[in-house]
Design brief:
Elements: H1 9-26, E1 43-48, E2 51-72, E3 78-83, E4 90-91, E5 96-100, H2 103-136, H3 144-177, E6 179-181, E7 186-188, E8 198-199, E9 208-223, H4 224-236, E10 239-240, E11 248-252, E12 263-268, E13 278-285, E14 297-314, E15 319-320, E16 326-331, E17 337-348, E18 351-356, E19 363-367, E20 379-382
Parallel strand pairs: 1-20
Antiparallel strand pairs: 1-19, 2-9, 2-14, 3-5, 3-8, 4-7, 5-6, 7-9, 9-13, 10-14, 11-12, 11-14, 12-13, 14-18, 15-16, 16-17, 16-19, 17-18
Length: 400
């Protein structure tokens, strides 16, 4: 029997029944929940790794140094009369750079020349006397002692000529040293003296320095441990030598830019520095425009072989763990995100060479890392593939 006490509950029951009916009828139009590769999973771009052959390069620090260098010092004492060059300019071998007052040395040369002439005249007189005595001694018109003395006098006069000629040569050399010339072709730096300065023979301070900068040397250092490891890799076949055993060198300047010309490795030291445990390598670079100056800090990239079956991974795909280890996000066969700890070697352009942690065929996330969570499902699309067409929008339900 229906009573007034039950009446207030009837509208509530009808409302619940209506709500359940609506839910049951509309359930087939609701999207499915997130699942493996389902519409609710975030979309990411992956790169399927493959093995490649890459050049093995080593980047070493170094400094530039002149190909030739000459410090100019006077070889005679005197007053600098004139400076005949512009500081910082190019000079040629044999070009006169300084003129030291030559008057004293010219007078010494003239005196030596006169002494030579006198010695030559004495030789002529001694020769004639020795010839006469040689004839007279045959008829015993002069004693043998006088003849011997005449021969000795001739030889002494000839020796005096040699001494006088050497003195003249020395005087002329000193006179020539009053003209300080460049021994090499190159660029000259600042001058340490001006006209009117007194300079002395073989003084400690150089008048100026000339440096040949084209080509130019780059002195590099490499640890002996790296050198040993590389030799072992070459012997084992992990590395293959470059063609002709040539070692090309590229230069990275102080501002990070790449030097336009390629150099070649010239030599390597045969001993290891006990203090640093490294060996010195020297490379030669063309420098026609004078961009490289002595003393510049540079980094050199040496291609020392070829590594086969290498795996390259873009820099953007590598992150770091709190411990500083390299990490990449891999999409496994079930379209789930799987973190991998990796080790990287050298950098080639915008990619790392991966040495551990990844194998060919792995799909690594390169875009959308901020949406990928370890253990969560994703929708993976290969890098470079055309984007999947968007699903058409659902048609609005018709009014009943």
């Amino acid at each position: 029997m229906l009573t007034c006490r039950n009446l207030p509950f009837m509208p509530l029951g009808l409302a619940l029944a209506g709500a359940l009916l609506i839910t049951a009828c509309g359930g087939k139009d609701q999207p499915p929940g997130p699942g493996v590769g389902g519409p609710g999973a975030p979309a990411v771009t992956v790169l399927t790794l493959k093995a490649e052959s890459v050049p093995v390069a080593t980047e070493l620090p170094g400094r530039t140094s002149p190909y030739l260098i000459a410090e100019l010092r006077p070889q005679v004492t005197g007053i600098v009369k004139e400076r005949l060059f512009k500081e910082g300019s190019e000079v040629k071998a044999g070009q006169v750079l300084y003129q030291i007052a030559p008057a004293t040395y010219r007078a010494a040369s003239d005196s030596a020349h006169a002494n030579l002439a006198r010695a030559e005249a004495n030789v002529e007189a001694a020769r004639l006397k020795a010839e006469r005595y040689a004839e007279l001694v045959k008829i015993e018109a002069v004693s043998r002692q006088d003849n011997d003395e005449a021969v000795a006098a001739l030889k002494q006069a000839q020796a005096d000529v040699g001494s006088a000629r050497a003195a003249l040569d020395k005087a002329n050399i000193d006179l020539g040293f009053t003209r300080v010339t460049s021994p090499i072709t190159g660029r000259i730096g600042r001058s340490a003296v001006t006209a009117g300065a007194l300079v002395t023979a073989n003084q400690a301070e150089a008048l100026a320095t000339v440096q040949k900068l084209d080509p130019i040397y780059v002195d590099l250092t490499q640890s002996s441990a790296e050198l040993l490891r590389m030799r072992r890799d070459l012997e084992s076949g992990r590395l293959q030598r470059a063609a002709g055993n040539a070692v090309p060198v590229q230069l990275v300047l102080e501002d990070g830019s790449l030097y336009g010309s390629e150099g070649k490795l010239a030599f390597s030291e045969v001993t290891v520095d006990e203090g640093t445990g490294s060996v010195t390598l020297r490379a030669v670079f063309p420098n026609p425009r004078g961009e490289l100056l002595p003393g510049m800090y540079v980094r050199a990239r040496l291609t020392q072989g070829t590594q086969g079956n290498a795996i390259l991974l873009p820099h953007a795909a590598v992150s770091r763990t709190p411990r500083g280890e390299g990490q990449a996000m891999v999409v496994n066969a079930g379209n789930m995100v799987e973190p991998r700890i990796i080790k990287t070697g050298q950098s080639i352009g915008d990619k790392w060479v991966v040495t551990e942690g990844l194998v060919p065929g792995d799909r690594v996330i390169v875009e959308g890392l901020q949406k990928a969570r370890p253990g969560s499902p994703v929708q993976a699309q290969e890098a470079g593939a055309a984007a999947a067409p968007a699903a058409p929008a659902a048609a609005p339900a018709s009014a009943k």
